[in-house]
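Q: what sequence does this backbone want?
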C-alpha cells in the first residue's frame, strides 16, 4: 500500500518552492524596514500555554489542537498559533526589563485539526509580528500599515481592511450581559457550537459563519456603543491616524476575532478574489495576555498572515513572480575523458556563488542541451577536446542563442557579466 502525506498536509515541490522563497524574502525585508527583528520559537509547547493564552472557549483549544503526551507523561501541543509562544519567550527571557517597545516577527508552520479546503490546511504557514510595551494607538496603526505594505510589495491591491474595537475587560463585561440578553430568546435556533459558545463566551457567536445563526441574532447590540471612554478614545485615534495616512477601512461590528486574548483594536484583511477563505491576515491588541501567561502587566499588539492564502491571492491576480530557474550555468561535457577539468570548472563556479550543474547520466551532446533547457539554465558551457586544446570554454546563452569562446582565466568574470 502506498503511503501518502497525511490529510491536510502537502509537499512543496522544487518547481513551486521559488514562489515561497520570493514571498518570504519580500515579507522579511518589509518587516525589517519597519524595525521588526526575527524570533524563532519551538514547534511544540506545553499545552497549558495555549489553554491559558489562546483561551479554552476558542475552537482552536476546544477542537483543533494536536496534543500528545511525551514519555514523561507531560502534555505537549503542536503550536496552533505563535502569539502565545512569543509571549512565553518574552516572559522567560525577561525581555520586559530591556528597551521597550520590543518588535518581533516570525515565520513558520502551525498546526490545527481543521477541515481541509483551498487555503486551509492542517499544517499551514504563518508570518506574524508581535510588538510589546506600548499602548499607543499609533502603534496599532503602524502594525496595520505593515500588513498593507506587505500586500503592496506582493502586488496585491484588491483588499478590504475590516476594523473594530472589542474594548477592555471592564466595558466588554457590560456588553457581554447585553449580548446574552439579546441572544437568550433565540438560543435554540443557534447551531450546536454556538449554543456552547453562548454559555462560555457569547461574543464568539458573532463570529459564527453559519447563516442560520446570523439570522437568529440579527439586530444584536454593537460593542462600539458600549466602549468605555478610554477604549472609545483609543479606537477613535486609531481610525484618525489611518484616515490621515490615506488608509481606507470598513468598521465591522461583527469582527471579534477567534481568540479570547484580544482587547481594543481588532482587524482583518480580506481579499474577496480568493473565495470562501478570503481572510489573509488578522490581528489586534492583547493588553492582558502577558500577565495572563505569568508575566508583568504589559500591552501588546500583533497580527498573523496565512502564507498559503497569500500565494492563492497572488495566483488569482496573476501577480506571482517568474521562476528564476534552478541553474545559472549548465556544463555540457562533450568528452568524458575531461572529467577532471569539468570538476575544476564546477568547483570554481560554485565557490563564486554561481549555481552550476552538469549531466551524470552519459547523455549525448544534443540530449545535454535539451536537459539544460529543462533545468532552466541561463548559460551552457561547452567543454570538448577543442576547448581543452585552446584553453577556453564555449559559453552559449540560452536566451539569445549566441555563443562565444572565453579563456579559462576570464570564465567566471564573463559569466557574472552576462548574468548581471
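A:
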Amino acid at each position: 500500500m502506498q503511503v501518502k502525506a497525511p490529510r491536510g498536509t502537502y509537499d512543496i515541490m522544487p518547481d513551486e518552492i521559488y514562489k515561497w522563497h520570493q514571498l518570504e524574502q519580500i515579507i522579511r525585508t518589509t518587516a525589517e524596514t519597519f524595525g521588526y527583528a526575527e524570533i524563532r520559537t519551538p514547534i511544540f509547547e506545553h499545552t497549558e500555554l495555549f489553554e491559558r493564552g489562546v483561551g479554552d472557549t476558542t475552537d482552536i483549544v476546544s477542537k483543533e489542537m494536536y496534543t500528545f503526551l511525551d514519555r514523561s507523561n507531560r502534555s505537549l501541543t503542536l503550536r496552533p498559533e505563535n502569539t502565545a509562544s512569543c509571549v512565553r519567550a518574552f516572559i522567560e527571557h525577561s525581555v520586559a526589563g530591556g528597551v521597550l517597545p520590543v518588535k518581533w516577527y516570525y515565520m513558520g508552520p502551525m498546526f490545527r485539526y481543521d477541515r481541509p479546503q483551498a487555503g486551509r490546511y492542517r499544517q499551514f504557514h504563518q508570518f506574524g509580528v508581535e510588538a510589546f510595551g506600548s499602548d499607543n494607538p499609533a502603534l496599532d496603526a503602524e502594525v496595520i500599515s505593515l500588513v498593507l505594505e506587505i500586500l503592496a510589495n506582493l502586488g496585491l491591491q484588491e483588499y478590504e481592511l475590516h476594523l473594530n474595537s472589542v474594548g477592555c475587560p471592564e466595558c466588554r463585561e457590560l456588553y457581554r450581559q447585553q449580548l446574552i440578553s439579546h441572544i437568550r430568546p433565540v438560543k435554540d435556533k443557534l447551531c450546536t457550537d454556538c449554543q456552547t459558545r453562548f454559555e462560555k463566551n457569547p461574543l464568539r457567536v458573532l463570529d459564527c459563519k453559519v447563516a442560520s445563526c446570523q439570522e437568529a441574532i440579527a439586530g444584536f447590540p454593537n460593542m462600539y456603543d458600549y466602549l468605555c471612554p478610554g477604549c472609545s478614545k483609543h479606537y477613535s485615534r486609531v481610525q484618525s491616524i489611518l484616515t490621515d495616512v490615506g488608509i481606507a477601512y470598513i468598521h465591522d461590528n461583527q469582527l471579534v476575532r477567534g481568540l479570547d486574548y484580544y482587547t481594543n483594536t481588532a482587524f482583518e484583511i480580506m481579499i474577496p478574489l480568493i473565495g470562501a477563505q478570503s481572510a489573509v491576515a488578522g490581528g489586534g491588541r492583547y493588553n492582558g495576555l502577558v500577565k495572563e501567561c505569568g508575566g508583568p502587566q504589559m500591552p501588546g499588539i500583533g497580527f498573523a498572515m496565512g502564507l498559503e492564502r497569500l500565494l492563492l491571492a497572488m495566483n488569482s491576480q496573476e501577480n506571482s513572480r517568474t521562476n528564476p530557474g534552478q541553474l545559472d550555468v549548465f556544463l555540457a561535457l562533450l568528452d568524458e575523458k575531461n572529467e577532471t577539468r569539468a570538476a575544476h570548472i564546477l568547483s570554481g563556479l560554485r565557490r563564486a556563488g554561481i549555481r552550476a550543474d552538469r549531466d551524470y547520466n552519459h547523455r549525448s551532446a544534443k540530449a545535454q542541451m535539451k536537459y539544460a533547457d529543462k533545468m532552466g539554465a541561463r548559460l551552457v558551457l561547452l567543454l570538448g577536446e577543442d576547448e581543452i586544446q585552446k584553453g577556453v570554454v564555449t559559453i552559449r546563452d540560452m536566451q539569445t542563442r549566441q555563443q562565444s569562446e572565453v579563456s579559462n582565466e576570464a570564465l567566471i568574470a564573463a559569466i557574472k557579466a552576462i548574468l548581471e
